[in-house]
Amino acid sequence: MDKERLIIDKFSNSFIGDDGAVVAHERGRLVYSKDLFCEGTHFRAGWLSMEEIARKAMLVNLSDAVAMNAEPKFVLLGLGLPKNTSAAQISALRKGFADVCDEYGVTIIGGDTIGSDKILLSVTIISRLRGKAVLRSGAKNGDLVAFTGELGGSLKGLRTLLNGGQVASNSRFKRPVLKDKFFYAAADKINAAMDVSDGLGTDLAKLCAQSRCGAKFIKRLSKHELNSGEEYEILFTFSTKNRAKILSLARKTRTKITIFAKITKGKFKSNARNHHF
Amino acid sequence: MDKERLIIDKFSNSFIGDDGAVVAHERGRLVYSKDLFCEGTHFRAGWLSMEEIARKAMLVNLSDAVAMNAEPKFVLLGLGLPKNTSAAQISALRKGFADVCDEYGVTIIGGDTIGSDKILLSVTIISRLRGKAVLRSGAKNGDLVAFTGELGGSLKGLRTLLNGGQVASNSRFKRPVLKDKFFYAAADKINAAMDVSDGLGTDLAKLCAQSRCGAKFIKRLSKHELNSGEEYEILFTFSTKNRAKILSLARKTRTKITIFAKITKGKFKSNARNHHF
């Protein structure tokens, strides 16, 4: 299928049209992230419009870059589309990509389109570090642990969809909302971070494993908050001495944050289940 | 599924383990290429071993970089694997990736693994330009047009497989052979190039369209040579004044090349069919 001409080539810019995209970079550190977003694995046919699919596939990838304190710049798109995909669907898909590109100032520089039974998207994001890289491995003993926004909405939306119900277009399952403004502002005060994709419990366990530390809850969270995956809120840790500064930056950027645990020595074992579809 | 731990994390290096891979680059030009390689689209179950699948998915991507005069450095892997994939199959897949990484000096820096009905691979390659970027758009009026190696073997292998036959492990359909040594040596004498992925006729039409030129055949080629896709030989053009130098570099690198056309003014229309699976 030559849907490539209909989608990727429409983002016409000086990068597109050859085997690869040539990009001149200044000396510096780049961050590369890549995620697959596929029908049957991440969503079922009918759950999301083509525009929502494009939007979410982009945002879950941008989220990885943001949570490392990197600013997304370029995108490579791999698309698998069923042969019966209509012109209107392709146009909706393109609009979803284009809207996110506009909002985040990123450019699609190339990719590949194939025919496939199910819809599949592979998104690679090339980002520039804004300052220090915030890693999963940076948590320090005594750090406070917090998350942005509200958790649970994605799992709630997923359950409704699994039960055959309808979900509003602003449901977190359909439309992640990145907290890039807060995170970029606070990044130099943050020791470790990652986005909440598998569920807070599972993701905190990953962060602790990478940081070789434990964690103790100082606030009771609901099962929904602990287990809801694909939230794309940010889980992060910071020194107690930066608490006032972090809270002030959260207020300034109108970002809700919840401090819920403390980093300890030892190991952290989550008994959280991860609720992906 | 957490097959990510079984595959990508096994390529343990300082890049892996976070949301994205941080890479420090010197100032310079990088080339980004991305291709999907999927069961049902590029091969059927049983046609290729897991090792051959990994190898071919990597090589078709490295081929894009080579044909632009770029040296592949880093790889991001997106893998979709059926739930019943065995440990032996995963190990074979890993060996296929590792062998290509060793041969070409590339490092897998991250990626994503999901469960899926069919095998799907999305490979992103980050390469460094060795000198000038050789593009599809560089062909000049009067240039000679040539291709490396032999064409037709991939289509022959594909037809045998489609008819239920067996194909040797060194068939071009199973195992592309890149002509990187010749191409890197000759690149500064080459005006335009691309790899032969859709078939020589179709690919020459693409090159001519990008270069806004036509082409006239000066040698008769068989239908097999013109229509065989997924060859990963290199189609390239060069000035007649560099003919002796190109032929000498081909001899030195033991690379067969066939000069078969001349770039003209006007347009080139191929009536070639492209034989992908």
UniProtKB/TrEMBL annotation, chains A, B:
Q: Which residues bind Mg(2+) 3?
A: 19, 64, 195
Residues the record lists as binding Mg(2+) 4: 19, 33, 64
**Tell me, which GO biological process terms does this entry list?**
thiamine biosynthetic process; thiamine diphosphate biosynthetic process
| A Pfam family this chain is assigned to | AIRS
| CDD domains named in the record | ThiL
Per UniProt, Mg(2+) 1 binds at 35, 112
Q: Which PANTHER family does this chain map to?
A: THIAMINE-MONOPHOSPHATE KINASE
Name of the protein: Thiamine-monophosphate kinase
Please name the source species. Answer: Campylobacter rectus RM3267
Taxonomy of origin reads: Bacteria, Pseudomonadati, Campylobacterota, Epsilonproteobacteria, Campylobacterales
What gene does the UniProt entry assign to this protein?
A: thiL
